[in-house]
Structures are given as C-alpha cells and as structure tokens.
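Repro case for the chain-ordering regression, as requested:
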Amino acid sequence: MAFDPKSILSKGKDLANTSSKWLTDILDLKSEKPQSVVEEVEEKTEIPEAYIQRFSLHPLEEFNQLEGREEEFKLMQRAYENWKISRSPLLMIGEFGAGMTSLLNASSSIYPHARIMANNVNIDTEQSLVEALKKAMDYPEARTLNDLKTLPAGEEQRVIIFENIERLFLRKIHGFNLLEDFLLLVHATKQNIFWIATINKYSFYYLNEVIGFGSNFLSIIRLQPMKPEIIEQIISNRNAGYEVIYLKPPTSTAVFSQNLERAESAGKQFLLKNDFFSKLHAFSDGNISRAMLYWKRSLVRVKEKRIYVKAHEEKIINNLTLEELFVLEAILQHTSLSSSELRMILRNSSKGSKLILEKLLENNLLYVKQYEGSGEPEYQVNLFFLKQVKGQIHSRLNRNIQ
Amino acid sequence: MRSTVTVLFLFFASLQSFAQTELLETVQESMETITGRAKTDSTKLEEVNTQAVSDSMQINTAQESKVGEKTARPEAVVGDVRENLTDALDKATDIISPSKILTIFISFLFVWLTTKGTNWMYRSLADRFNRHRLRILRLQPITNIILWVITIYVLVVTIFNPTSDTLWALMGSSALALGFAAQDILKNIFGGLLIIFDRPFQVGDRINVGGNYGEVVKIGVRTTQINTLDDSIVTVPNSTIVSDNISNANSGALDCMVVVDLWLPVGIDVEKVRKIAFEAAITSRYLNIDKPVVVLFFDHFDNQPATNVKIKAYVLDARYEKGFAGDVTEAAKKALGEAGVYAGA
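-- result from build under test --
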C-alpha cells in the first residue's frame, strides 16, 4: 500500500470536521433545533449488559486488583505483628460500600490461612453462633460457647475474620447478650487466635456510645474515604477500550455555561469532564461503590465503543417523618433488618412497621434482599440515598454520624 | 398582637402628651410676648411723665397722648393673643396632621408585617436546621425589639424633629403619665427586656414557671408564651416571670435529662432489674446516645415499702421528653414482667 501524505492529511481534516460538528450537535450549545441530539439520546437509553457488568458492586478477590487501600493494608500487617506480642484482636470500621470485603479478601497475602466468616443475616441464638464458629475454629465437637472457649492451642496460629459483627446484636432488651458472649469468647481465645472483626460505622457509633464496644479492641482500623484521583483512576480503568463523551449537565451555573460556549471542542470536553467528576466526588464522598453507582446513573448511551455520560441530578429527600427516620436509623445500625426484627426494635405493631417499610420502599430509600439462610426478606438502605439519609439523621435526630 | 397594640397605645399616648406640651409651650411663648410688650409700654409711659415735668407747656398734649395710648393697648393685646393662638393651633395641626398619622400607621403596619415575616423565617430555618434550632430561635425576640425601637426612633426624629428641650419634656411627661397609668405594663416591658438580655431562658427551652411546665414558644415585650405538655398555650406576664423562680430543663441545649421512675417491690433482684432498666433506656429510639445512662435504686418505707428505680438518661430532643419516658417505662415494664421480677418479689 502506497504512502500518500496528502490523502492522509485530507482524511484527517475531514475526520476533524466531522467530529467537531458531531460534538457541537451532541453538546447542543448553540443549537436552535427544538429536538436536539442530546434529547434524542436521552430518550434512547441503551446500555449493553456487558458494559454494566464492568461496574457491578462485587468485592474484589485478588490482592493485585486492590487500589487505594495501601495505608489500611499496612495497618493490617502491623496489627498482625502487634498481636504476636500483645494478643489483642483487631476491629475494622467502614461504611457500606467502602470496600471492606475487598480489603479482607486481599489480606490473604498477609494471612494465607485466615478463615473468613461472612455474616449477612442476624445471628440471634447462641446455637447458630456456635454452628458458625465451630467450622471456622475447627472444633466440631463444640456444643456451646463455653466449649469453644476451651479450644486446645494448636501448633499453628490461627486467624479468623468475623465480618459484620453488628449482626450479633439487636437493639432490644436482652439483644446485646450474644455480642457480649462473643466478645468474651474472643478474649478467652485471643492467645491462639488472631481475631479480626469488621463493623459498619453506624453500628460502631451506637455500640461504642452505649456499651463501650471499642474498648474491647486495642487495634482499630478505620477505612478512610478514597482519594478522588484514585476513584477517577478506577473508573477510567473500568472504561478501558471505550471513549467517554461528557454531555452538558441538565442544570449548570451561568458562568459555567458561558465558559462552555467560549471553549473549543476539546476544551468543552475538559470542562465537562471536570464538572462531572466534581459532582461525582461530592456525591460519593470517597465511597467507591457510590461512585460506581453515580457513574451508572449518569450513563446515557453506549455506542460503537463510545460512552455518553451526563451528570446525574440527585432527587432531594426532605419530607421524611420522624418515624421513617427512626426506621432508617435502626436499619443503618444493623446493616439490614427484617420486618419482624424492626418491629421488636421500634416496639411497634407489626402492621405499623410494615406500612413504614412499604412507604420507604416506594420512595427507593430501601431495597429488599433475600439472603440465604434467612427466612424473611431483609431491608437495606439504598446506597444511592445513603448520604442524604445520613444527613437527615444527623440534622433531625442529632446523631453525630458523618 | 397584644404587645403590638400596647406599644401602639403607648406611642399614641406619648404623641398626645407631646402635642399638649407643644401647645402649652406655644401659649406660654405668646403670654411671654404679651408681658414683654406691656413692660415696654410702661417704660414708654415713664419716659412721657418725665417729659411732662420738664416741659409744662406740653402737659395737656402729653396727657392727651397718654390717654390715647391707654385706650389703644387692650386692643393690641387681644390681637396679639388671637394671633398667637392661631399660630399655636397651626403648629398643633402641623404636628398631628392626617398625613403624619397615616405615615405612622403605615410604618407600624410595615414593621408588624416585617416582624411576622422574620418570625416565619426563623421558624422555617429552625425546622430546616433542627440541630441549631435553639440558636436560631433565640434571635427572634431580639430582632423584634430592635425593629420596633429603630422604627419608633426614626418616626420621632423624621416626622416630629423635636428639639432637645422638647424631647426632655416629652420623656418627662411620658414617664409621669406611664408611671401612673401604665405601671403594670411598664413592669412587664422591663421584665421582657430583662428576659431577652439576661436570658434566664430562651425560645425553645423547657421551663417551669408557677407550676406551668412546657416549651417557651414566644418571648414578647409584655408576656411570654409556654406550650405545655397537654398542648395548651399559657401566657405568663413577664413581671411574674422575673419575680418568680424558674426551672430550666435544657438551658439552650437541644437535649435534656429525663428521669424515669419505676416503682418495684423491695425484694427485687437488683442485678436483673438494673440490666433491664439500663437496656430499656439504651434501646429507646429517643435516647441521646452521646450521653451516659445511669440507673439508681432507692428504698422507700413511707406508706408501703417499695424500691424506686430511677433511670436517668438524655433524650435526643427535649420535645420528645415524654415520648422517651413513656417508651422506656413501657419497655422496662414488659421486660420486668417477662423476667418474673414482680412475681419473684
């Protein structure tokens, strides 16, 4: 094939003109057409499942996939070294969707023989706790927690990761017994077992204030919000192979619109990208799962390896009643609750609890999840509205949660 | 509204007194002018007498002219008085002209509406930022007072433009009139000012005055309004509040301590009851979880032996005080029953 610089140059110019025209149409800055391309695109929201899968909220499995958690990882290593001297268990505190499970999975490089106990439903009897623990502790003969306390010291030092320790309590009279029994077991066996417990930050706030829960752990690691540049990097990695086109947001300031009008095509994309990510970071607050959700909500169209995104405008929630806030708070404190558990916690009638739950479901503030081993469906706070729910609880119930 | 009417009444009373003072001053001025003229006339008469002694030839002429002056003087006096009275009446009409009254009325209406608007604004802000509710609400009475004082000052200075003497006279006469006629109103007003500036309580606090316990919803110039627990509005004169003992449950804080009393038989299992009582408090949705919960036991042998269990805890917002007490009592009672505490005693 002969090399013809003139024809290449001409093709390049044509391509540049086409892309410039196409961008102007897409951005719809000066268009006087009543039906803009943007509006048409909005109507035809088509996202292939293969692309959506890239942003699914599954925890990572491998250490080399983990990004932005180097500091916490170092602290975990240090806590393990400290345990060898002080024999103190480790508590890890994090927000929903902050990447706790991913970090624990990655910690297999520090503790290769660690047993991870993922507790997704509430454990409300000693028997079910013993059943779960005796597998992790390799003590099948154990019948009670006292049996487990007498676990013979093995040659190998064991590491047990107990995820979601808040699943051991229910905010009701006598609802703390199992958690206290478990803590006694941890103290009784900490010579042989390096216990790592994880808890969500709202449960920790409550338990620490009312029963001094934190004092049982000498080492505490709090998962910090991810840095904006790391979140951007993760999103960029997941978009590998696609070109991202940022569209004009539904609402913007006059200054921003003016700047956008004045800028060239490339400059416009630069401005729109910056605007988009500043909104994404404000929404996510350093929570990677919320950032992913925001990205997914902002998707307009994926076509021919091009992704069109437009900053999502969050629905403002400000009409929650006091009872609804109490329900949301109770669910946050326990990660998820079934309808009957909620009734016990709020000392409500069964019908009353259900009615409130239905209303919250209708407003998308909650979603239902059916866990394996749980008889009833569990209600969980929608991560998308978590920040607003937190804000309402902070402001109206005077809780010091951030 | 009552306080507004009172202020309006006081203002118009002062205005009347002010107008009277002006009128009196004008009449006094006229009288002084007349006296001055009379004095001048008598001096002139003396000069004429002297002239008569020195020039006997002109006695008759001088006497005639003296008689002529004597007959002309009363007419001039009457004319002067009439003129001065007309001036005084003109001045008085200038002071209380319909346009000025209308200006005052419109100004007062405007300020009244403004205070209503600012009150609404404060209430909305307090609802929006519940955490800072009490800080916002405490600004409400201060703003109202400042608005009224500024308006009255501006009206007096711009419309009447009184001299310092007039102002002193006005203040003196007002004080005298108010001292006699509106002693109680004055007491209440000073009481209101004391409450606003000394701040023994603020809007949103839960106070007990003279057996009325509830949330302070308004601190006015004359009265303070309390919303009691059975949702009645009690209006207490400020003078009564100033002279009475006041207990304040939260003193500007959003939360307040609640003491829940449980009465149990003397022979209870203290350990079991303590755990239930403590957990009844810490599991309540109304608890302020940032503050400690204390359970105390007291034995009483007055009429019938009993153990008084006191649960001391803080409610997240003073408004839910009774809700919290009821919730804790209900939960504790149920759990104590299930634990067989009553039966075992």
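Ordering looks correct now. Strands of chain B lie at 206-209, 212-219, 223-228, 233-237, 246-248, 256-264, 294-300, 306-315.
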